[in-house]
Amino acid sequence: MKYWSLPGASAMFTIAVMFLLHAMIPPVAMAAIVEHTFVVSQVKMTHLCNETLATVVNGQFPGPTIEVTEGDSVTVHVVNKSPYNLTIHWHGVKQRLNCWADGVPMITQCPILPNHNFTYKFNVAGQEGTLWWHAHTSFLQATVHGAIIIRPRHGPNSYPFPKPHKEIPIIIGEWWQIDLAQADLDIANSVDVYFSASTINGKLGDLYSCSGTPENGYMLDVEPGKTYLLRVINAALFAEYYLKIAGHKFTVVAADANYVSPYTTDVIAIAPGETLDALVVTDAAPGRYYMVALPTQSPEPDPQSPVLISRGIVQYQNLEKPGNSPSTDMPMAPEMPDNKDLIPSFYFHANLTSLAQHPHQSPVPTRVDEHMFITLSLGSTCRRGGSSCKRSGSNESVTVATMNNVSFQQPAVAAPLLELHYHNSSSMDMLQDLLDKPPRVFNYTDPTLIPPGPEEAKLEPTAKATLARRFRQGAVVEVVFQGTALLQSESNPMHLHGHDVFVLAQGEGIYDAARDTARYNLVNPAIKNTVHVPRLGWVAIRFVADNPGIWYMHCHFGFHQTMGMVGLFIVEDGTTVDTSLPAPPVDFLTCGHI
After folding, report:
1. 520-546: pLDDT as tens digits
2. Residue 434 burial (CB < 10 Å; 0-12/13-18/19+)?
3. Residue range 232-236: average pLDDT?
4. Contacts with 125 (C-beta within 8 Å, 6 or more apart), sequence order
5. pLDDT tens figures, 25-36
6. Alpha-carbon distances of 416 from 50, 300, 425, 470, 591, rounded to whole Å
7. Dihedral in degrees, nearest 10, Cα atoms 133, 277, 533, 185
8. Secondary structure (3-state) at 83
9. How many CA atoms lie within 13 A of 46 on its CB side?
10. pLDDT tens-digit series, residues 56-87
């Protein structure tokens, strides 16, 4: 903008206008280094009349929230005072040229041993919204997790929605009364385990009690006529959840730290690993309203689990009473969907589309270089090795989770695979290719395959291997995830580290390219890092493999991950420094002491 010099009073007027114009422009915050120390230890917590030794960060469940501004750098010093080896994964952080900090044990780093420390460093450039962090070791995620909130560089007035009165993290989780490392081992050995209660922000709620005394529930105090931004995270291991607040609606404005076209609904469906930002307007009659988190599950003949609901209370401050004390009336309860009715989840996810013309949004690539069709199933391996044993739940076999009929085998290596990859080690030859399609075609969604039987038994045998797929730098990859009915019909929340993906379409039944590519949304598809594959259905995604490194791709159900529904996507170096994996950090952990 040019300004001309004017004489006398006119000059003073011009200076005043210039000052006013500059004052109206919101200040841009300088990029900062945000530093935290996470002390991981075990503390005694009492719920349901039982004292449990819980592994937590800084004595908190959930753990501390990391609040940053887009473009900031983050430094987290992890001090491991727990008895477990562990790593921390920064779920949804893209880690551009920083795969070393992704936090996957023996894939990107050595685990942090008990009584050892490690410092993670990463930045949040080009990302806004809600992400989260969690342990990436066994089932410790259940209690070692917390929110990451990334606000816009230009301040809250630059949100593409009305500026909220307050922003509230809502973390849905589980309370376990058994040792989490042992629970992980049990699942790996086909021993059933289950959590004891659902939680909202670490609180069980008044549906649970000890000797007749109700458990405390999460309380959200609100003022009438205000707009609140709920930053919802599903940190659970075992279930997708329906979330409702009686007498209120949600307007969903972001998913997985990507803005979406505003979508109004009375129920949120959120799978493990997903995050959602939703506006709630407190326009109901002043009172108390239950916030209910209901775990979903597939209907029979799938194995059935207890329905463990958590509920908190949204309570209006009564401005007419001294001290603004809330009402003590019985809260109003919402009408919840049936927990075996998964249609609301299907349509909720189908209704998410990207908000057009946001500066961080990239166009959908139209050229596709690599096509993959990946079936998500259960199967079994022989407990003593080999291929001949009794199956269908026999003690001679172990139930595993698979992608294209292979279950992931954790690599037995002396250094992380990423380090071996960087040094072009011949040890990388032990990886087995993740195939472009399953080795055999069958009626993937035939419900008669859910219970053990003669037809299911033909499909059950599988193999174990360290599965990986290599992509050249910049390749455009399209993946269709196909759910199956083999031994179970669960949905699958598939999470890809180091990348966001375009969710082109989803459907029920078996994917048919000739029919279903015409349904692809190439204009404004949702952009996610965790993709919900519907029960007995499919989802098609597309992404650009432009972040060099080895990236974990897995189901975010804890039991499926432990059972082997995992693969590695290896993005090769390009020809420039900006497209090549940098050298390991100078303080990179070594595994010589493991």
Report:
1. 999 999 999 999 999 999 999 999 999
2. buried
3. 98
4. 70, 71, 96
5. 445 567 899 999
6. 39, 41, 11, 17, 8
7. 30
8. coil
9. 7
10. 999 999 999 999 999 999 999 999 999 999 99
Which DSSP letter does residue 111 get?
-
Q: Is 311 within 8 Å of 217 (Cβ atoms)? A: yes
- The CA distances from residue 121 to 118, 124, 276, 363, 524, in Å, are 10, 10, 25, 29, 33
Q: Tell me the three-class secondary structure of 366-385, residue by residue.
A: CCCCEEEEEEEEEEEEECCC
Question: Measuring CA to CA, which residue among 465, 534, 488, 299 is closest to residue 379?
Answer: 488
Q: What is d(CA 72, CA 33) in angstroms, rounded to the nearest whole number?
A: 6
Question: pLDDT tier at 498 (50, 70, 90 boundaries)?
Answer: very high
Residues whose CB falls within 8 Å of the CB of residue 530, separated by 6 or more in sequence, listed in order:
92, 256, 271, 272, 273, 274, 493, 494, 495, 556
- Residue 557 · residue 384 · CB < 8 Å: no
Positive or negative, the CA dihedral 502, 508, 513, 514 is negative
* pLDDT level of residue 205 (50, 70, 90 thresholds): very high
How far is residue 105's CA from residue 335's CA, in Å, rounded to a whole number?
Answer: 42
* DSSP H/E element including 455: helix 454-459
Question: Can you tell me the mean pLDDT for 464-479?
Answer: 98
Cα–Cα distance measured from residue 560 to residue 66, given in angstroms and rounded to the nearest whole number: 28
DSSP alpha helix (H) spans, 478-577: 513-516, 558-563
Length of the chain in residues, anyone? 594
Give yes or no for a contact between 516 and 507, defined as CB atoms under 8 angstroms apart.
Answer: yes
Whole-number Cα distances in Å, 379 to 149, 167, 393, 394? 39, 44, 10, 12
What single letter denotes the amino acid at residue 105? P
Other beta carbons within 10 Å of 342 = 24
How is residue 566 written in tokens?
């995992």
Q: Is the bond preceding residue 62 a cis peptide, omega within 30 degrees?
A: yes
CA 11, CA 22: separation in Å to the nearest integer?
Answer: 17
Mode of pairing for the β-strands spanning 463-465 and 406-408: parallel
- Residue 332 per-residue DSSP state: B
CB contact at 8 A, 197 and 175: yes
Q: Tokens for 521?
A: 């949304």
Q: 430-461: per-residue pLDDT in tens?
A: 999 999 999 999 999 999 999 999 999 999 99
Long-range contacts for 56-63 (Cβ within 8 Å, ≥24 apart)? 56/143, 56/144, 57/144, 57/146, 60/146, 60/202, 61/143, 61/202, 62/145, 62/146, 62/147, 62/171, 62/173, 62/201, 62/202, 62/235, 63/38, 63/133, 63/144, 63/145, 63/146
The three-point CA angle 124-81-93 to 5° equals 15
- pLDDT reading at 21 higher than 50: no
Question: Of 74, 71, 263, 90, which Cα lies nearest the Cα of 151?
Answer: 71
CA angle 509, 511, 516 (to 5 degrees): 115
For tokens 């919402």, what's the residue? 334
